Amino acid sequence: MLKQTEGSHAVAEAIALCRPQVICAYPITPQTHIVEGLGEMVKAGELTAEFINVESEFAALSVAIGSSAAGARTYTATSSQGLLFMAEAVYNAAGLGLPIVMTIGNRAIGAPINIWNDHSDSMSMRDAGWIQLFAETNQEALDLHIQAFRLAEELSCPVMVCMDGFILTHAYDRVDIPTQQQVDAFLPPYEPRQILDPNDPVSIGAMVGPEAFTEVRYLSHHKQLRALTLIPKLAADFRVQFGRDSGGLIRTYRTEGAETIVVALGSVNGTIQEVVDEMRADGALIGSVSICSFRPFPLAVLREALKHAKRVVVLEKCLAVGLGGIVSDGVRKSLSGIALNGYTVIAGLGGRAITRSSLRRLFEDAQRDELEQVTFLDLNADLVSHELEREAATRRTGPTAEALLRRIGTVASGIG
Amino acid sequence: MTFLPWTSRYRRARRGVFTCVKVALGNEVKIAVMFQIRIHGRGGQGVVSAAEMLSVAAFLEGRFAQAFPSFGSERMGAPVMAFCRIDDKAIRLREPVLEPSALIIQDSTLLHQVDLFNGLPPGGFVMINSKRSIDEIGLGGFARGVQHYRLCALPATELALKHVGRSVPNVPLLGGLAAVTGVIKLPSLVAAIRQKFPAALAEKNVAAATEAFDIASRAKESIDA
After folding, report:
1. Full-model pTM
2. Any idea what DSSP says for residue A290?
3. Is it the case that residue B5 has pLDDT exceeding 70?
4. Quick check: B71 contacting A, CB < 8 Å?
5. Is position B1 within any domain?
6. In chain B, which residues have their Cβ closer than 8 Å to the Cβ of A270?
7. What is the pLDDT of residues A275-291, one digit of tens each?
8. Bridge partners of A8?
9. Model ipTM value
């Protein structure tokens, strides 16, 4: 059914249609509306599930691990510092092979404290063993959750569905909410590979020494490699059942004959596609690729999509401090042996708006190969150099963040 | 360039509760292209809800709409923004509304605090919540300096107090926007209001929106005449 609703609410409805048995969560912006919505559904009796209020994010995922091991379809959601606070349990859930589905309402990580969107939170857990899927739109966020439970349960591996905080979670958009029958036909009841059953006792979480630890890790890598085949298959099945394209490993946009290809994750792809259309209309040979599956990283299909380009611009909403880009590393690996120019662009950190005009300037610079290896989109160079001068001149400069804010004055009401 | 003899119409409009200034003829805003609305207000004035209701109204007319807040850590009284885009095709763009087709200003005290008119193109609409005239709120000079757009003041707080009993100007301003721009129709706005609020509260808001729509329609007619 078509509906105009908030992204978080659409996701809550999708989760409810997946018939979760246990939902546990601790509120943190910008994810909160999702679990609030689910809490309301449970309270109203529209959804039969255990809704467990916990005292922290660490507890939220620990409870999820327990309930998943007991054989329950389990869901939780978090953002930013919340994900960091549950970090140990994030690794444990993957190491134990428990098919928990968790939404990440992507948000920056402090300090300085910032509630706005970027990808630093989920990127920090990229190697924890979870599958990570990034949604481009609210429709895709909704759809990916339905696919995520099936993917998680077929592989016995946890899945994070990442959606841009505020930009998607708080946006009212048109979404098509499937029927219970459709979801039931796509997602069978959870059949655990391992279960804590008093009638058939097992240990889950054994200590493993050097004799088998590598093999355990190899098998989790192998599981993710299998996901490279399973993710496109589920997207195809999804298309049959629901009649639309959602998910998959990557999506290309106007890459035929493109000399310049822009690679990005999540909602910014919409704005990028607008700019690609503008520039194509002016005769530029440009296209873009949206990576949906960041873990497993789709090396082969990405290579296929990018290999004929002259240059690749990777636009990232996360900074690997001291290196540059994280997504760029994977893209570069996918292009091993192919000579082309690669650029990393760090954009949208802590909620800075990524505008069409900035992207257009950026892509035009890229076309002329006038970009640095690593570029910070819309960096306020004056602000930075003033601070560097101040730091060179004075020993006791005080905290950096506060100094920058003083320098620019209040911008709370700035547009963009 | 042809100018309306706006001064006399402006004076005439000032006599009513609703003032509307049409600075120049031509460059009518075409609704065939994407229509973008930026709403400015303060935390607690229903800025975000207004954008959401607007998007629902457009959706109910079978159009595509996207509403989103300015992503601040909202608190009572702080300047807040929300955005709404309306189009005939799916909306991919995710940047804030930088070039609004229409601006709604829910709190005229923001005129001294925020760069409200940033990016407003010629032909853009402005709806301001004020029982005072455009001149009295200090925008007369602005109205004369900028051509090809429409500037309207509507006593939205008073209408909200009258019908809803609370000083929440968001819904009446949407009624005014519907009348002046035609981007959404009043029945769809009414339906969106009924989706948003519980029945009793919804009907009070419907009354406020409808009166605002009527006032704005009459003022628009008098100016268009």
Report:
1. 0.93
2. E
3. no
4. yes
5. no
6. 91-94
7. 999 999 999 999 999 99
8. none
9. 0.93
A316, two tokens? 């990232």
B127-139 tens-digit pLDDT: 999 998 888 887 7
Q: What is the DSSP string of A107-163?
A: ---PSSP--S--SHHHHHTTTSS-EEEE-SSHHHHHHHHHHHHHHHHHHT--EEEEE
Residues of B within 8 A of A170 (CB-CB) are 68-69, 71
The SS3 assignment for B151 reads strand
Whether B100 is in a domain gets the answer yes
Q: Can you tell me the distance from the alpha carbon of B77 to that of A68, in angstroms, rounded to the nearest whole number?
A: 44
| Helix extents (H) in chain B | 6-15, 47-60, 140-145, 156-163, 170-181, 186-196, 199-224
Are the C-beta atoms of A1 and A176 separated by less than 8 Å?
A: yes
Question: Helix, strand or coil for residue B124?
Answer: coil
How far is it, in rounded angstroms, from Cα B55 to Cα A240? 30
Q: Are A137 and A165 spatial neighbours (Cβ–Cβ below 8 Å)? A: no
Residue A289 belongs to what H/E stretch? strand A286-291
Note whether A355 contacts B79, CB cutoff 8 Å: no
Q: Lowest mean pLDDT of A60-69, B16-25, B74-83, B168-177, name the range.
A: B16-25
The Cα–Cα gap between A238 and A102 comes to: 20
Look at residue B158 and tell me if it is in a domain: yes
Parent domain of B22: 6-224
If one counts the domains in chain B, the total is 1
Other CB atoms within 10 A of residue A328 CB? 24
B72 and chain A in contact, CB less than 8 A: yes
Right CATH number for A250-376 from 3.20.20.140, 3.40.50.920, 3.40.50.150, 3.40.50.2000? 3.40.50.920
Residue A54 CA to residue B1 CA, distance in Å, equals: 67
Element containing residue A6 per DSSP (H, E): strand A2-6
Residues in chain A within 8 Å Cβ distance of B51: 172
pLDDT-wise least confident of A65-79, A97-111, A222-236, B64-78: B64-78
Q: Do B96 and A353 lie within an 8 Å CB cutoff?
A: yes
Residue B211 covered by a domain = yes
Contact between B223 and B9 under an 8 Å Cβ cutoff? The reply is: yes
| Among A5, A163, A168, A173, the residue to mutate for chain B (most B Cβ within 10 A) | A173
Side-by-side strand order, sheet with B150-154: A2-6, A172-176, B64-69, B79-87, B35-42, B102-105, B125-129, B150-154, B19-22
CB contact set of A63 (below 8 Å; sequence gap of 6+): A22, A24, A52, A54
Torsion angle defined by CA atoms of residues A9, A15, A18 and A20, in that order, rounded to the nearest 10 degrees: -140
- The torsion angle over the Cα atoms of residues A396, A398, A401 and A407, rounded to 10 degrees, is -80
Tell me the pLDDT band of B148, cut-offs 50, 70 and 90.
very low
A 10 A CB-CB count for B198 gives 8
Q: What is the CATH number of domain A2-242?
A: 3.40.50.970
The ranges of chain A annotated as CATH 3.40.50.920 are: 250-376
Over residues A95-117, the mean pLDDT reads 97
- Cβ-contact A83, A130 below 8 angstroms: no
Q: How confident is the model at residue B178 (pLDDT cuts 50, 70, 90)?
A: very high
